[in-house]
Amino acid sequence: MKAYVVVREGKLCAVLEDNTEIESDDPMALADRLYAAGVFPGEVTMPDWRAGNAAPHGGLKIALFGRLHELAKTRKRPA
Q: pTM for the whole thing?
């Protein structure tokens, strides 16, 4: 399942391809919730710096992707 992650009102907000929205202040917690929803690292996109304040900064991206990769290593993709 694909997800698009932006910063909205100071929180990370992920919009899934089924239009479900998941929000969190913590990129690690968001990664856990995305993975539980069936999202894998290669399915997450985010705007870059040209999007202004909607773009998560580098540290948030690293934390989110790092946790998703960690989760993906320990579990197999659901069938």
A: 0.89
